[in-house]
Structures are given as structure tokens and as C-alpha cells.
Design goal:
Blueprint (H helix, E strand, L loop, with lengths): L1 H5 L19 H23 L7 H5 L2 H32 L4 H16 L2 H9 L7 E3 L4 E3 H4 L2 H26 L3 H9 L4 H31 L11 H12 L2 H30 L11 H16 L6
Antiparallel strand pairs: 1-2
Helix pairs in contact: 4-5, 4-8, 4-10, 4-11, 5-8, 6-8, 8-10, 9-10, 10-12, 11-12
Length: about 300
């Protein structure tokens, strides 16, 4: 009887008597304090700099700056469309069983990915040194008249983007199971119809996220068109700074507009990715508005006083 009593388990303490001691993370506090100190020093440096911050809001809506914003958006969209179309063609050529087309596509990708965008822009802008006359048979003119800053920027940005988009499209196509192609051919579909109706729609789930990132990057890369005298945002800001001597202020204005453009298109990219992810997952990530609504609901439940029962 005594042994039985000794072997009985000790009753657990009630939850209100358990004292939980949190783990101390001193390294986090030190790292956080160091980051805050660096940010404070940077803020002090900018506040003491000879920068006229009061003129920045006025120049944000200046006609010259808005013209530069429009040209930046315009050239970015056209260059992205050109890169996407050529990228699909190059991806199909790269995966072709024809050794000539696959080799040509590989050489194109190798060259345009291996050389800087700025060099490509300058080469197109000075292409008249190689081809003084453009003769297409039905059209003939001096290359200096044909190769405008807009065309040089479009070709330099678009052809370079095509090399990257081809690899993105190729990765998306290869992510689709080969059984989809075999089943389509068994139904009598041609190779082109299989690509348009079966392969590409399924590959979009893989293609869309990096394509959105490439377009956001294109918005910033378009600033290199300043080197070929295209009137994009940086060129317009520089023109104003050369007369007003507000150099740093104009860089702040350009940076704010780039942040606005990239933020807006990041939201579009989020919803586009969410749309194409519907067929691959049952639990879609909440939208920013849904997340905000949930947080407000939780805050309301915490702030509501409890009712005594």
C-alpha cells in the first residue's frame, strides 16, 4: 500500500501559478540600437546639408518633370513589350530541335546578357558609323535621321530585355509537364496550337512573377537612356538642375517619382500573380486591403472591454 502511494504522480500546478520567464535577447537590443543610431546620424547629416527641401514639392508637379515621367513610362512599356515578344520567339528557338535556330538563339542571349546596357545604347546611337545609309529597297535615308534618341533607347532597352525574357519564358515552358504536350498531340493539335492553348497558359504562373520584376527594373534601367539624349526623367531633372543649380534637389524629385512608379506597378504585379496562382493553391494570400481589415478587426476586439459573466 505504501509503494502504491509513493508511485502516484504529483499533481500539476494550476496555470495561474506557473511563472514563465522570457528569454533575454540582448543581441537584438544592441543591433536595434546600432541601426537606430546609424539612421539618426544619416538624418542629421542630410538635415545639415545645403539642400533646399522646400522646393522639392513644387518641382514634383513641374511640367518638365511630368514630361520626363511620361517619357520614362512610355519607353519602359514599349521596351518591355518588345522584349517580351522577342523573348517568346527566342525561347521557342532555343528549345527547337533545329541546331541552327537553337544556336542563333543561344548566341543572341549570350551577347546581350554579357554586355552592359549602356554600351548597347551607345552602339545603337552611333550605328551610323557602321551603316551611314539605311537602304531597305523601298526606303532609303541617312542613318543619322533614322536613329533618333527614342529609337536608340527602344532598341537598346528592348533587345537587351529580350535576352532575359527568353530565359524566363523558357523556364516557364519547361515547368509544364511533358505529358501535356503529348496529350495535346494525341488530340491532333499542332505544335503551335499546343504552345498557345496548353503550354503557355499553364506556364504563366511561373512567367508572371519574374516578368513583373523585370518591368519594375526596366522603369529604373530606362534612366540610362539619358546617355543617348532621350528626354526621360533623369534627363529632364538634369536639364532643370543645370539652370537652377538645384542638383541634389532634382535627384530627390526623380527618386520620389521612381518610388511612386515602382510602388504602383508592384501593386499591379501582386494582383496579377494572385490571379495566376488560383489554379496552383487553395489558400490564396490575403490582399493588402484584406490584411488591413483583419488587423483593424483584431484591434477592435482587443480594445473592446470584456463583459462580466
Amino acid at each position: 500500500m505504501t509503494d502504491t502511494v509513493d508511485k502516484m504522480p504529483t499533481p500539476a500546478l494550476p496555470p495561474d501559478q506557473i511563472k514563465a520567464i522570457p528569454v533575454r535577447h540582448y543581441g537584438r537590443w544592441v543591433a536595434g540600437a546600432a541601426v537606430v543610431a546609424v539612421l539618426v546620424l544619416i538624418g542629421i547629416a542630410f538635415s545639415n546639408a545645403k539642400i533646399n527641401y522646400s522646393i522639392i514639392p513644387d518641382y514634383l508637379t513641374d511640367g518638365t518633370i511630368l514630361s520626363g515621367v511620361w517619357h520614362t513610362l512610355y519607353i519602359s512599356v514599349l521596351a518591355m513589350v518588345l522584349g517580351l515578344v522577342l523573348g517568346v520567339i527566342l525561347a521557342v528557338m532555343r528549345m527547337s530541335s533545329n541546331p541552327v535556330t537553337s544556336t542563333v538563339a543561344w548566341l543572341y542571349i549570350w551577347f546581350f546578357r554579357g554586355t552592359p546596357v549602356l554600351v548597347q545604347l551607345l552602339l545603337w546611337y552611333n550605328i551610323s558609323l557602321v551603316f551611314p545609309i539605311l537602304n531597305l529597297g523601298f526606303y532609303k535615308d541617312e542613318m543619322n535621321q533614322v536613329m533618333t534618341p527614342f529609337l536608340a533607347a527602344l532598341l537598346g532597352l528592348g533587345l537587351n530585355e529580350a535576352a532575359y525574357m527568353s530565359e524566363i519564358v523558357r523556364a516557364g515552358i519547361q515547368s509544364v509537364d511533358i505529358g501535356q504536350t503529348e496529350a495535346s498531340h494525341a488530340l491532333g493539335m499542332t505544335q503551335g496550337k499546343t504552345l498557345r492553348r496548353v503550354i503557355l497558359p499553364q506556364a504563366m504562373r511561373v512567367i508572371v512573377p519574374p516578368t513583373g520584376n523585370e518591368f519594375i527594373n526596366m522603369l529604373k534601367t530606362s534612366s540610362l537612356a539619358y546617355a543617348v539624349q532621350f528626354n526621360e526623367l533623369i534627363k529632364r531633372a538634369t536639364d532643370i538642375s543645370s539652370t537652377s543649380l538645384a542638383v541634389v534637389e532634382m535627384y530627390f524629385v526623380a527618386s520620389i517619382w521612381y518610388l511612386i512608379l515602382t510602388s504602383v506597378f508592384s501593386v499591379f504585379q501582386y494582383y496579377l500573380e494572385r490571379r495566376y496562382a488560383r489554379g496552383s493553391t487553395r489558400n490564396l494570400p490575403p490582399t493588402p486591403f484584406q490584411r488591413l481589415k483583419k488587423n483593424l478587426r483584431l484591434f477592435g476586439s482587443f480594445s473592446r472591454p470584456e463583459v462580466a459573466r
